[in-house]
Amino acid sequence: MSLLLTPVLPLPAGQAHPAEKKGIKSENSDTTALITFHNRSSETVKVYWLDFSGKRVLYLTLPSQEKVDQSTYLTHPWLITDSDGNAWHVVYPDAQPRTVEIFAPAED
Description:
Blueprint (H helix, E strand, L loop, with lengths): L17 H4 L10 E8 L5 E6 L5 E7 L4 E7 L4 E5 L4 E5 L6 E5 L6
Parallel strand pairs: 1-7
Antiparallel strand pairs: 1-4, 2-3, 2-5, 5-6
């Protein structure tokens, strides 16, 4: 009996944020920080760390109205997207603990 294996193709990343297109990426891991993500939108969102190459690394899938604390570093950007990976916001932590309230972007 033989098995037919179908290759798994990577899923599209969704619409990129303009900052991603310009090459935003993590710079160093020198200064620790704490960021709280609070999803105030009516849908589930995804939270990605943008690594040292600027690539998305999925850290959180955050249901509507949920919040979570995330340890990070001061120079590490975070990308919030809808569940399909379409970019909404890019945020950085602050020197003091920061809460990011997530809302869907306004319609143009």
